[in-house]
Amino acid sequence: RKEVEQDPGPFNVPEGATVAFNCTYSNSASQSFFWYRQDCRKEPKLLMSVYSSGNEDGRFTAQLNRASQYISLLIRDSKLSDSATYLCVLYRDDKIIFGKGTRLHILP
Amino acid sequence: ETGVTQSPTHLIKTRGQQVTLRCSSQSGHNTVSWYQQALGQGPQFIFQYYREEENGRGNFPPRFSGLQFPNYSSELNVNALELDDSALYLCASSPQTGNYGYTFGSGTRLTVV
User: Fold this and answer.
1) How many interface pairs between A and B have CB atoms less than 8 angstroms apart?
2) Given 3-state DSSP classes, what are the helix, strand and coil percentages for chain B, each rounded to the nearest 5?
């Protein structure tokens, strides 16, 4: 079983809709969690850190559920520019572990 | 504030050769990590340096080695190149290990022929 698992998608979502995806992790010792986005042929960019209390940044909300070992990302009022691959990342024991990413296509 | 810069941007090497990739960390960042990203995959963690010491390593063989310099810039060295080493190599820096996100450079695309 991979340490970080994500649905690869693609998620095809109409502009203006709300979309959510989850990422599960297997090692309960994981310490920190992040969402990154990666555009085609570009480097990953930090979207937000993820906390148990939940955090929001504009249209984006992230949540960590330690009991069930998953993190989630919710995007409201999606824009065409949200089309990208969303990478779930965790930090554990001085290792940074990326999921394979979920592809999101926002349709006009 | 300058971001993370990597050089070269593209490189072609022959199987069996050695390669050195370079990374300048973002100003104020003392932690640098390196990743290998194959097409269609997430980045795979190679190793991390904090204040010139390796302080974390992924599942890569010893022919992948690195250095961090006093100015926190870093090198990734790969010996005895194999065809499967062809990938995008990303460097990222952070103000500290662990709880802070990482800022990535735009990568070096290595092709081994």
Assistant:
1) 54
2) 5, 50, 45
Of A42, A94, A99, the CB nearest to B42: A99
- B13 is written with which tokens? 């090497």
| Whether residue B98 has pLDDT greater than 70 | no
Answer yes or no: do B45 and A97 touch at CB < 8 A. yes
> For A4-18, what is the mean pLDDT?
96
- Share of residues in chain B with pLDDT > 70 (%): 96
- Give, in degrees to the nearest 5, the angle at Cα A83 between B7 and A66: 90
Phi, psi of B51 (to 5 degrees): 50, 50
CA B6, CA A6: separation in Å to the nearest integer? 29
* Token pair of B5 as six digits: 């810069």
> What pLDDT, in 10s, does the model give residues A59-105?
999 999 999 999 999 999 999 999 999 999 999 888 899 999 999 99
